[in-house]
Write a structure and sequence with these properties.
Structural class of chain B: alpha/beta
CATH architecture of the largest domain in chain A: 2-Layer Sandwich
Strand order of the largest sheet of chain A: 5-4-3-6-2-1-7-8
Largest interface: A-B, 25 and 30 residues
Number of domains of chain B: 2
CATH architecture of the largest domain in chain B: 3-Layer(aba) Sandwich
Distance between the termini of chain B: 42 Å
Strand content of chain A: 15-25%
Mean pLDDT of chain B: 91
Radius of gyration of chain A: 31 Å
Number of helices of chain B: 14
CATH class of the largest domain in chain B: Alpha Beta
Low-confidence stretches of chain A: 1-5
Order of helices and strands of chain A: HHHEEHHEEEEHEEHHHHHEEEEEHEHH
Number of strands of chain A: 14
Low-confidence stretches of chain B: none
Helix content of chain A: 40-55%
Mean pLDDT of chain A: 88
Strand content of chain B: 15-25%
Largest sheet of chain A: 8 strands, mixed
CATH class of the largest domain in chain A: Alpha Beta
Oligomer: heterodimer
Helix content of chain B: 40-55%
Largest sheet of chain B: 6 strands, mixed
Number of domains of chain A: 4
Chain lengths: 526, 360
């Protein structure tokens, strides 16, 4: 007994010692160690991440307030390594008191706790960009925001207190501003500007494809201005928050929900905490699980919870409500592609909603083919998650996996083995979901769930079939035209040669030409 | 009427009849490749086995079909007018054929080859001649040709060219010969030919020297054949000791090639025998060598497996296998390692003492 006591004491002493060493890790330390997870691993990527976070926020804010987004991104070079990034929108603006927290405090936001389709999910984006700016140049982030014509425009200059994770206001004043409402963010940071693959302009173009209701403008460091016009003035339908769908529930989550619910009976727990469970279905589930409908949820033991889960699994539910999802839509996605890609054929598909682990999602796919798209290159694959373009980690993504697993030859494209098809083609895949499963924190590629891959494949195949039909038709008419021109070119040469060899009369030659043309036109073989 | 013109007319008539019956016109052409030849030493050359490809007139083939007929029309015109056209000229004539014109000369050459094969004639009979030179002659030979303007016989004495040589014309059918030479020596390289001419080797050995300059042209092969047949003199061949010298030069001279199998009958020299340089010579004469190139190694493997000539003559198989084991090749001019005139004073006299040892 004594030894045990002394050993206990020893352990306690250990714990106290340990506790002395444990302290809060400062935000800047955390950031510096984890910047790659947040998209700030290289100067090139940092610049585009900053713009991405800013534009995502602007789009979300505009849509929540029913405003047609008009966003301008301006990049200026100050030194060989430094750039100023300005993102300006016509959004609802931010009330004065909130400005410092939104831009000067990490992990502050409203999106993290919701189960609904939004672009940003972690509330870390724009303040991380501000912190990156501060760490690389020491410059404050400059914000101008106004909420209405009748309110003043507020101007702030902010620094982050990296020890306390609190904003530090270095300047605050009311200013004149040309916008009735909206927000303007200006940051100076180390960066690198490039064109081409994974560039800012590519991000803007792709964003324009996924957001046909937005007007975007990009001013590049050399003053080149690119305007991405709207394809529609119709705002997307606001996605609603939803309750979990019973198809995706796991035991651990079910037990937690049973413990924390405010419902007093199992019946009301089932109907109020889940989507798509009505009174009748709830009763049936309880019967199957051999539980009373009026049992207290907090008293359900682990074994009984498991029975409940099995009962739910045996029950068929209606698919989750789709009003929690806001797909781009077949029509608009097609218009977007027509606007941004000079092709000759377009096909788009929006699949019905499906579920993976209880999360409803919708897959959309689109194909642009021909026209001025490069003929010899591998297809351009454009991936979106909740209307946000995914520009990195292409090969790790479920979308890419589905594209290369598709047999493109049957649709008239070249493809060697399991590779990206070759040809003048752009392939778009969009996943809209209340929760997009990414493979890592940097949110660049979608995880490989069977249900998701199946849906992406179905969407691509549907587009592919339309493409195949088009290409086949094209080839046929091309062959026809070729055949016609061949006959016109060479039939008279044969007639002429035979006349020369056999000393024929002109009438004989014409007869030969006529008969040969007639014979060849009837022969189907090319 | 000329035989070729008759054949051209017959073919054209068949095509016309088919067209007017609105059925599929076609021509058949023997397949020209090593896979489609037989070799029988009694016959003496690669003979076509009879494999044929049928070219039917369809939308896809109409262009080459039209070109073939136009080329036949040109051939008829040339032959009937007792004229001739070089291969290059024929190519230029096609520029008047509108869309059926040839883009490059190899296209028109290929069509010409097809017509040759179709009628089993050579291109001279079709009225077409190549631009290539036939080869050079020096030694105990008088060539009897005709003056191109007067038609009078002229005698060309091949001993009277000094350090130069008589050039074989592109067409040799009209030539006649006078000679009392004991043999013809056909040489691969111009360099070796010049050395032998310089020292009047033909006088010492009482022979006719012919420089082939690589793979012998059709005119050169025909010239040697006619001369050897006419005067009943043996033909000895002297090339580098490598697969190119053995197969591309010697074998082509003696039995013809797969690609020109339809005309081998006229262009082979079945009496040719191989003097050297043989793989055994490398050791016997202690000759400096170079390693075999990858293409050489590939060629050796290929001919041992596929060439009907090598399959027939075990001596050649052995020689090639020896070369393969040695992994070395030897040039004619390596003999100079023992003195510039070693070839004249030692090598050739040695070899000629026992012509039975020559490879078949």
């Amino acid at each position: 007994m004594q030894t045990t006591l002394s050993e206990d004491n020893k352990e306690i002493t250990h714990a106290i010692e340990q506790a002395k060493k444990q302290r809060e890790i400062s935000i800047s330390e955390f950031f510096t160690k984890n910047r790659h997870l947040l998209g700030f691993d290289s100067p090139l990527k940092s610049l585009s991440t900053t713009i991405k976070e800013g534009v995502d926020n602007s789009l979300d804010a505009c849509e929540e307030s029913d405003i047609l987004p008009e966003i301008k991104v301006e990049i200026k070079q100050t030194t060989p390594e430094r750039y100023i990034v300005i993102i300006e929108d016509n959004g609802p603006g931010i009330v004065k008191q909130q400005i410092p927290k939104i831009f000067g405090k990490l992990l502050y936001g409203s999106k993290f706790h919701k189960l609904s389709q939004t672009r940003g999910q972690q509330g870390i984006g724009i303040s991380a960009a501000a912190l990156y700016s501060q760490l690389t140049t020491g410059k404050p982030v400059k914000i101008t925001s106004r909420i209405s014509k009748n309110s003043p425009a507020n101007y702030y200059e902010l620094q982050l207190d990296t020890q306390k994770n609190e904003p530090e206001i270095t300047k605050s004043e009311e200013v004149e501003w040309h916008n009735d409402h909206g927000t303007r963010v200006e940051l100076e940071m180390e960066g690198k500007y490039q064109r081409g693959k994974r560039s800012v302009s590519e991000y803007m173009k792709y964003t324009a494809v996924a957001n046909p209701h937005a007007k975007l403008t990009l001013v590049e460091p050399d003053d080149t201005t690119i305007v991405y016009p709207r394809a529609t003035t119709q705002l997307p339908i606001q996605p609603k928050e939803i309750k979990p769908h019973p198809d995706g529930i796991e035991l651990g989550l079910l037990i937690n929900m049973l413990k924390s619910t405010e419902a007093r009976t199992l019946q009301s727990f089932l109907t109020s905490e889940f989507s798509r469970i009505g009174a009748g279905t709830a009763k049936k589930i309880c019967e199957t699980a051999k539980l009373y409908t009026n049992a207290r949820p907090s008293r359900i033991a682990k074994q009984e919870a498991d029975n409940l889960l099995q009962a739910m699994k045996q029950t068929k539910f209606i698919a989750p409500p789709t009003d929690c999802l806001s797909p781009i839509g077949e029509e608009l996605l097609k218009k977007s592609l027509q606007k941004e890609f000079d092709a000759e054929f377009y096909a788009t598909v929006t699949r019905p909603a499906a579920v993976y682990r209880g999360n409803p999602f919708i897959i959309e796919a689109g194909i642009a083919y021909g026209g001025s798209l490069p003929k010899e290159n591998a297809a351009e694959i454009i991936r979106f998650a909740n209307r946000v373009p995914l520009q990195y980690q292409q090969s790790a993504c479920a979308s890419t996996k589905s594209v290369i697993a598709t047999k493109w030859r049957q649709y008239g494209l070249q493809q060697s083995g399991s590779n990206i098809p070759i040809g003048p083609v752009v392939i778009v895949v969009h996943m809209a979901s209340v929760w997009v499963p990414f493979t890592s924190e940097s949110k660049e590629s979608i995880a490989h769930y069977d249900e998701i891959i199946k849906e992406i494949k179905l969407a691509i195949q549907e587009c592919g079939r339309q493409l195949g039909k088009y290409i086949k038709h094209q080839r046929k008419s091309k062959d026809e035209a070729k055949k016609k021109s061949y006959l016109e070119k060479y039939v008279p040469v044969i007639g002429e040669a035979l006349r020369e060899i056999l000393d024929l009369k002109e009438a004989d030659e014409l007869l030969i030409n006529e008969n040969l043309k007639d014979y060849l036109e009837r022969s189907r073989k090319i | 009427m000329n035989e070729v013109v008759t054949k051209i007319k017959e073919t054209a008539m068949k095509v016309q009849n088919k067209i007017n019956k609105k059925s599929k016109p076609e021509v058949s052409i023997p397949i020209r490749s090593l896979n489609n030849v037989n070799y029988d030493p009694k016959v003496g050359y690669f003979e076509l086995k009879g494999g044929k490809k049928v070219r039917a007139l369809t939308v896809n083939t109409i262009k080459s079909f039209a070109q073939t007929l136009k080329m036949m029309a040109l051939s008829k015109q040339v032959v009937e007018g007792d004229d001739m056209a070089t291969k290059r000229e024929a190519y230029y004539v096609s520029k008047n054929w509108g869309d059926a014109r040839f883009k490059e000369q190899p296209e028109s050459d290929a069509v010409m080859d097809d017509i040759e094969a179709m009628f089993m004639v050579n291109r001279e009979q079709l009225g077409f001649v190549p631009e290539e030179k036939g080869g050079d002659i020096a030694g105990k030979l008088i060539v009897i040709d005709k003056d191109t303007t007067t038609g009078k016989e002229i005698k060309i004495d091949c001993t009277k060219f000094g350090s130069g040589a008589y050039s074989i014309p592109s067409s040799v059918e009209q030539l006649k010969f006078e000679t009392d030479a004991k043999f013809i020596l056909a040489i691969e390289t111009a360099g070796m030919f010049q050395r032998l001419v310089k020292h009047n080797y033909w006088e010492k050995a009482n022979c006719i020297l012919i420089s082939m300059g690589g793979v012998p042209t059709r005119a050169c092969r025909r010239f040697i054949r006619r001369l050897a047949d006419d005067k009943k003199i043996p033909v000895y061949v002297f090339t580098d000791g490598d697969p190119y010298g053995y197969m591309s030069i010697y074998r082509t001279l003696k039995v013809g090639s797969g690609n020109a199998a339809h005309i081998n009958k006229y262009f082979c020299v079945p009496q040719a025998r191989f003097l050297g340089v043989t793989p055994q010579d490398i050791d016997e004469y202690k000759l400096p060598t170079h390693p075999l190139k990858d293409v050489d190694k590939k060629k050796i493997k290929d001919v041992i497996k596929n060439d009907p000539f090598v399959k027939e003559h075990k001596e050649w198989k052995k020689a090639l296998e020896l070369l393969q084991t040695k992994g070395q090749r030897v040039e004619q001019q390596a003999l100079a390692a023992h003195g510039l005139n070693y070839v004249i004073s030692k090598y050739l006299p040695d070899k000629l003492k026992d012509v039975k040892k020559f490879l078949p």
